[in-house]
Structures are given as structure tokens and as C-alpha cells.
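Weekly puzzle thread! Below is a chain. First person to post its structure in C-alpha cell form gets bragging rights.
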Amino acid sequence: MVKSHLMLVHFPIALLFVAVVFEVIGHLRGREDFQKAGLYTLLAGFAGAVLAAFTGKVAEESLERFLTRRPGGPALLEAHEIAAYATVGIFAAILLWRTLGRRTLRGSVLVAYLLLAAVGLGSLGVTGFLGGEMAHPQGRGAQAQAAAAMGRDADGD
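Winning reply:
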């Protein structure tokens, strides 16, 4: 399940980022088409985030065994998990607000909505960073160099 999680996480990261960009453009420029694209992208990104959180939870046990051998590994996993659940919660609130309060997104309410979306992106970035630290502790380039020195590709094949 670890590989499934690693493959899935990139989709909600990209989709949720693009959804917020569409929302900003749509609301600040009064473009209904961008607002609609933002909503559909937000729905897809949120569904992907829930799926990524599920696969991450399933993969947690095997990751815990691996990360106990690394200094700070279990704490990193715990921080990543908390950040992931916070991110899913923030985007759930954004999605709910967007679908139920669509007609009221004006003035200070719109500003608050867009600020929450910015907080969601910040949380998404922290979650992704922590996950990347677990998956690639010395960076992808260092892994590739070490693998090449052992005559394998960076994925161990």
C-alpha cells in the first residue's frame, strides 16, 4: 500500500492547487467558467486527498517499522499524518463552504474564503514536504547517485 500512496498523493496536490488558482481567478475576475472549473477541480482534488489519506493510513504500520530505524522517523510520520488530516479537514470545509455558500461569496466573506484556501494550500505544502522527507530523506539526487554506484536505478531495480 506504500507504493499506492506514493503514486496517488501527487494528484490531490496538483488538483487542489489548481482548484484554488481557478477559484481566485474566477472570483476576482468574475469569471463563472473559472469558478465552475475550480469547483470541479476541488471535488476531484478532495476525493484524491481522501483516497491518499486512506492509503497512507493503511501503509502506516509498514512505514512505522521502517522509520523506527531512522532518528526522528516516527515523529516525522506522526507530523505528516496530523498535517494530512488537517489538510483534508480544511479542504472539506472549503468544499462545503463553496457548495453551500456559493451565492454569498462576496466582500469580506469572499476574502475569508480565499484566506482559508490559502491556509489549505499552506497545509498541503507542509504535508507534501513532510511526506517527501520520509520518502526521500537525502533528496532524490542523492538516492540516484547511491543507486548508480551500486549498479541499480534509483528505485532499487
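Puzzle host: Confirmed. Bonus trivia for everyone else. Residues 32-67 form the longest helix (36 residues).
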